[in-house]
Amino acid sequence: MDSTWFRRFGTAAPEGSMRLVCFPHAGGAASAFVPLSRALGDRLDVLAVQYPGRQDRRREQPFTSVTAHADALAEALEPLTGEPYALFGHSMGAVLAYETTRRLTAAGRPGPNRLFLSGRGAPSPHPSVHDRLAGDAEIVAAVRGLGGTGNAVFDDPELLEMVLPALRADYGALGSYHWNGGAPLASPVTVVVGDADPVVTVQEAAGWRDHTTGDFALEILPGGHFYLDERTTDVAGIITTGLLAAGPAA
């Protein structure tokens, strides 16, 4: 396991457990998945991705391009694809999990047994209007509007100064991201969305159906963009059920 990119929280999973790799949201860090790791630790080997530019990697430059970030993630993840695995991505993490899967399979590596995409609409040829933000004040206001347990950081000037570089980079990357076409994935996909998400409609989330030839499931949970904070147990159940239904990796 690459100690630069991946973090493991909670108790060790039983030997031979399937690996679940989790991709955080914009501005987020691996620690966002501590609760989910603990909820699944007796069933899956859960790894959380640590992006550059935050927490213990804060001295590194964050990526300002989804393409470059996904290229690096695919390289980091490639050694782990020899065993069955699944990916879970929330918000920006959903985009990165999807683009990383495209790169791995294009290189002839096995795809995930299932791809879990959370809090994000399907990619389109045009950047999302919610990602095209100008300046720090607009970014902070947008992130505050999404809710989530991490909003207290914006009330502390020192903490805000620490997280802003990653937020600027992440929203800059998302603001220029668009789907460039290509064949759908073969891996099964489960999409999860909050019923009161202010930036992702259920219809937009359902659009991921067009990006896989495999099994597709759409799960709608109570809550907003960060429904996961309150619905960790539900999400753990969705992941477990989805992996039981998943076929062999593509």
Characterise the protein shown here.
The structure is a single chain. With 250 residues, this protein is of the alpha/beta class. The protein has one domain (6-124, 182-245): 3-Layer(aba) Sandwich (Rossmann fold), CATH 3.40.50. It is 33% helix and 14% strand. The chain contains seven helices and seven strands. It has helices at residues 34-40, 66-77, 92-106, 135-145, 157-175, 202-206, 232-245, and strands at residues 6-7, 19-23, 45-49, 85-90, 115-118, 189-194, 216-221. Strands 1-3-2-4-5-6-7 form a seven-stranded mixed sheet, sandwiched between helices. Helix 2 (66-77) packs across helix 3 and helix 4 crosses helix 5 (157-175). The radius of gyration is 17 Å and the shape is globular. The chain starts with 5 loop residues before the first strand and ends in a 5-residue tail after the last helix. The model has no long low-confidence stretch (mean pLDDT 92).
Number of H/I helices: 7
How many β strands by DSSP? 7
| Radius of gyration computed on alpha carbons | 17 Å
Question: Could you state the order of secondary-structure elements as H and E?
Answer: EEHEHEHEHHEHEH
Q: Tally the structural domains.
A: 1
Multimeric organization: single chain
Query: What's the helical proportion of residues?
Result: 25-40%
Structural class: alpha/beta
Q: Work out the strand percent.
A: 5-15%
Shape from CA axes? globular
| CATH fold-level assignment | Rossmann fold
